[in-house]
C-alpha cells in the first residue's frame, strides 16, 4: 500500500469537491494500492492539519477555514512546512500574473512535491518554466482539469494516442459561451437576453467578460499549445474575438445553410473566434458542453465531449491525475 | 532502451498497417525508450522470420507470404517457436467459435508472451478465460482495436476515468450501419439502395449480414460487458435487432420530431437495436463514424467519436496498446 499525503491549497468549490471525491473513492483507491489522505487544507485564514487525514464531514458546511484552522501558516509557508507528497493547487485563477497559484506551485515543486492543479493562470503564464522545475526536482506537474473540465483531453493525447503526431486541436472550451450561443439559436434570443438567462442560472458570472470575450478560451489555447505542441506561446500571442457581436440573425442564417456558430479555440493556430461548424460535425454540441477534435496523423480525427465544469467533476479529473502520477513510469532498459 | 520483439500473426489489411506504423514511428518509439521490431510475420503459407526486424518495404506489395516465408511453421507452432516478447494477433475474426485467433492467443499467453489484438472473436467467446490466462502467466492482453476502431474507449475508461464508476455505455459501434442510415436520412434512399451504394464504396461487404443484422455490434457489446463491467456475458445474451426493416419514412418522421435513428449498442443492458437519438445529442454523428457515450458517477457523461476502421488507424490503436504494456505498472508500496 502506497501512502499519498495530500496538501490541499485553496478551499473553494473545487477544493470541497476534492475532499468529497477522496472520501467517496477511498475504498476504491485502496484497492488500487493507494492510501490517499488529505493531511492539510489551506486558505487565507490558515491551515487545518491532521496527519491521519482530514474528515471532510468536518468541513462540509464551512465556506472558509476561519475558526477551523489549527495552524497559523498560509500559502508558500504552509506548502513548505506541511509534510506531504503532493500539493493540489485550486486557488482562484489569474491569467495575467498567475498569482497566488504560481508561487504555490513553484514552492511545491522546489520542495520535491508533485503538483496537481485546476488553476489555469500559473500554466498560462509559466508552463515551460514549471515543467522544467518539475523535471529538475524529479516530480510531476499534472493539470488535466485546466482544460475542458471533465473531458479528458491532455491525458487522451498523452496516454491513448501514443505514437500519433497531433496535427491540430480545435474545440469549444467554454461552456458559458456555448450555452449563450445555443439559447440564441434555439430560442432566437438576443445576446443580452441569453446572457441574462445564463447569469440567472449561475452559468455566467455577474461580470461575464472573462468568458464571453474569449479570455478563458485563449488561456486554454495557450496551455494546449505549450503542453501538447511544445510551443512557447503567451496569452498575447493568441488572436481573440469573443461572442458579444453575434446576432440571432447571424445564427439563423448559418442554421439555414446547415451550420452552427460556435466560439472555437484552435491550436497550433492560436486563435479564438466565432466559427461556422457544420451541423453534422461532432463539434456541433449544444448547451454547456465542451468538445475537442484532435486531428492526428495515424488515427484520423478523434473527438471528445464532456461537461465543462462542476465541483465533483473537476475534482474527479484531479484525482485521476493523482492516480496517474503513481501508476505511470518511464521505460527502463 | 527496451527491446520489444513482436510476432505478427495474420497478414491482411491490419497486419500490413502494423508493419507500416512500426516503421513510420520507429524513431519516435525509440525516443520513448522502446526498440520495437517485428521479428516474424505468419500467415497460412508459413512464417517470415528476421531477428533483426523485418523491413516492411519487402512486404509492401505482397498479399500473402507465399514464396516469401522462410520458415515452414504456421499458427500455434509459429507462436511457440519464434523467440518474441509479444504477439499481435490480427487473423480474420469468427464470432461463433473464435478460431483460429483463440488458439493463437491461448498459445501466446501460455508461452508467457503479451498479446495485442484487433480480433473480436476470441474475446467475445472467451474474454474472462483469456484474461485469467494472462494473469496466471504474468503477461498482458490488450484489445483496444476490437471496439470502436480508432476511438479510444477501453483505454479511456481504464486510464482517463480512473476513480469513476462506469454506470453505462451506449454507442454506435458499426460504421457500415451508420453510413447506411445517414444516407437513407439525408438522401431519402431506401435501405437496399443505400446498402448498394455502401457496397460500391467498399463500406459494406458483399454479404452485409454481419454488419446490418447487428452481429458485429453485439460482439462489441459482449467485449465491453465483460471487460468494463466485469460480466460473464455471451453473444447469446445480447438482444439484437438490425437495421434491415428501417424505412426512409421512419427516418423522416423521426427527423421532423428532432431525432435521428441510429443502431445503438448498450451495456450493461446487453441490447443492440435501432433507437431514437436527439439531433442535439453528442451521439448523433453521421457517416461512418463510431461514437460512445460513457455515463460515470463523478465525471458526468463523456462522449468520444472517431473513425470506425481503417488499416493504419486500427494499427495505430494496436501500437498504442503495445506502448501501454511497457509504460503502465502496478503500484508498489
From TrEMBL, chains A, B:
Domain called Homoserine dehydrogenase catalytic: residue spans: 152-323
Keyword Iron-sulfur: no
Ranges for domain Aspartate/homoserine dehydrogenase NAD-binding: 10-144
InterPro entries: Asp/hSer_DH_NAD-bd, HDH_cat, HDH_CS, HDH_short, NAD(P)-bd_dom_sf
Domain of life: Archaea
Gene Ontology molecular function: any one: homoserine dehydrogenase activity
Pathway(s) per entry: Amino-acid biosynthesis; L-threonine biosynthesis; L-threonine from L-aspartate: step 3/5; Amino-acid biosynthesis; L-methionine biosynthesis via de novo pathway; L-homoserine from L-aspartate: step 3/3
PROSITE patterns per UniProt: HOMOSER_DHGENASE
EC number(s) from the headed UniProt entry: 1.1.1.3
Keyword Transmembrane among record annotations: no
Enzyme class (EC, first level): oxidoreductase
Keywords in alphabetical order: Amino-acid biosynthesis, Methionine biosynthesis, Oxidoreductase, Threonine biosynthesis
Homology family: Belongs to the homoserine dehydrogenase family.
Database matches in NCBIfam families: PRK06270.1 (NF004912), PRK06349.1 (NF004976)
Protein name, UniProt field: Homoserine dehydrogenase
Native source organism of the sequence: Candidatus Methanocrinis alkalitolerans
Amino acid at each position: 500500500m502506497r501512502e499519498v499525503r495530500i496538501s490541499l491549497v485553496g478551499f473553494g468549490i473545487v477544493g470541497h469537491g476534492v475532499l468529497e471525491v477522496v472520501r467517496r473513492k477511498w475504498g476504491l483507491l485502496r484497492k488500487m494500492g493507494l492510501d490517499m489522505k488529505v493531511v492539510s487544507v489551506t486558505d487565507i485564514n490558515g491551515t487545518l492539519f491532521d496527519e491521519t487525514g482530514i474528515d471532510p464531514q468536518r468541513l462540509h458546511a464551512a465556506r472558509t477555514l476561519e475558526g477551523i484552522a489549527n495552524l497559523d501558516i498560509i500559502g508558500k509557508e504552509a506548502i513548505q512546512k506541511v509534510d506531504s507528497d503532493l500539493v493540489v493547487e485550486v486557488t482562484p485563477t489569474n491569467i495575467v500574473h498567475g498569482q497566488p497559484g504560481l508561487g504555490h506551485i513553484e514552492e511545491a515543486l522546489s520542495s520535491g512535491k508533485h503538483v496537481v492543479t485546476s488553476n489555469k493562470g500559473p500554466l498560462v503564464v509559466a508552463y515551460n518554466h514549471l515543467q522544467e522545475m518539475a523535471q529538475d526536482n524529479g516530480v510531476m506537474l499534472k493539470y488535466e482539469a485546466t482544460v475542458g473540465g471533465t473531458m479528458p483531453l491532455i491525458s487522451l493525447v498523452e496516454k491513448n494516442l501514443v505514437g500519433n503526431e497531433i496535427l491540430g486541436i480545435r474545440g469549444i472550451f467554454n461552456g458559458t459561451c456555448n450555452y449563450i450561443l445555443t439559447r440564441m439559436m434555439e430560442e432566437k434570443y438576443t445576446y443580452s437576453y441569453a446572457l441574462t438567462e445564463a447569469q440567472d442560472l449561475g452559468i455566467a458570472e455577474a461580470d461575464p467578460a472573462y468568458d464571453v470575450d474569449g479570455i478563458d478560451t485563449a488561456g486554454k489555447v495557450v496551455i494546449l499549445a505549450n503542453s501538447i505542441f511544445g510551443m512557447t506561446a503567451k496569452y498575447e500571442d493568441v488572436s481573440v474575438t469573443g461572442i458579444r457581436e453575434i446576432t440571432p440573425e447571424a445564427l439563423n442564417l448559418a442554421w439555414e445553410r446547415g451550420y452552427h456558430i460556435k466560439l472555437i479555440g484552435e491550436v497550433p493556430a492560436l486563435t479564438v473566434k466565432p466559427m461556422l461548424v457544420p451541423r453534422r460535425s461532432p463539434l456541433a454540441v449544444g448547451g454547456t458542453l465542451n468538445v475537442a477534435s484532435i486531428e492526428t496523423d495515424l488515427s484520423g480525427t478523434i473527438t471528445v465531449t464532456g461537461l465543462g465544469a462542476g465541483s465533483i467533476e473537476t475534482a474527479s479529473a484531479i484525482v485521476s491525475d493523482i492516480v496517474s502520477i503513481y501508476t505511470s513510469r518511464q521505460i527502463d532498459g
